[in-house]
Design a protein that fits this description.
With 350 residues, the protein is α/β, with parallel strands linked by helices. The chain has twelve helices and 14 strands. The structure holds the ligand CSC[C@H]1O[C@H](OP(=O)(O)O)[C@H](O)[C@@H]1O. Belongs to the EIF-2B alpha/beta/delta subunits family. MtnA subfamily.
Length: 350
Amino acid sequence: MNIETIRFKNNRLLILDQTLLPHKQEYRTLKDLSQVIEAIKSLRVRGAPAIGIVAAYGLAIHALNLKALKKLDFVALKNAAQQLKQARPTAVNLKWAIDRQMAVIENLQNDQDEMVSALIHEAKTIHDEDRETCDKIGSYGDALIADGFNILTHCNTGFLATGGIGTALGIVYKAAENHKKVHVFVDETRPVGQGARLTFWELNQAGIPATLITDNMAGSLMKEGKVDIVITGADRIAANGDTANKIGTYSLAVLAKAHNIPFYIAAPYSTFDLNIDSGQQIPIEQRPKEEVLQFWNIPSNDSYQVYNPAFDVTPGDLINGIITEFGIIKKPFEKNIINVPKQFNKGDAT
Ligand SMILES: CSC[C@H]1O[C@H](OP(=O)(O)O)[C@H](O)[C@@H]1O
């Protein structure tokens, strides 16, 4: 796939504007901090790893702009970092990437040029690492995919959501690359339609067989025995394996359990938040009511009640395993998640 989701060249940050897909492929230059924050909030760029990467570049762009105005100092960058972290509360990759950026300039506060080049370099490193991480997740996850499998997935977890081939969808790409005949049931993923607009588009671009379904069809497909495995992405994973992901993921996990279908999460280790013990502590983003109303062309009204959480939390006991760049983490998650970097050497997928 040679479509670039995020491009940083000659100190310019461009993103493929995902709010226009699949109808238009248009790049948008993000020239300053407010444009980066707007792009993240409005889902022009979205997907846990992708928003972390763009936020990291965004802080570097902000440092360049401040330097040109002779206003660059550590405190100004700390304020900007806080604003970026608040752009979307659930995906921990955003906080993780920004904290990484702030850590690299912690001891460079007296040298503006050093701070700028360190921020640019670290953002590029985060981007390159994610590209490699996606490849590893794809390879480990491919071990779960048999020839002829029907895979059901939710939301978008492909190259549009990451710095590489993707997480859950990256596994589909790897399986296809390894000449496995796979087919994907794509949940449309209301209300924003990341599945219908983005995943369905990615898979058709790649020539991988895909069938678009509405979210309420998943259960009957499973009952008819048409789904071999469910794999989704994640936005934040607690130390006990409880996982926040796009709204509707929990329903899929319950349905998969009821039909004895394997349910896996695919995510980079940067999506784990070991500061929280369980999913109850994961902040869930509440999004504007208009996202639901506009689908039916219902004009917004202050008196209308609309419930629109962007994510839900799937308890670890409904998850068969978590596919990461270190391998597939199995239960007991409480024990195995914290030991991941030590426990898994390359190729130790279990
Ligand atoms: C690899 S992307 C992870 C995650 O991000 C998406 O959320 P959003 O489209 O709101 O950014 C979705 O939950 C994906 O599973």
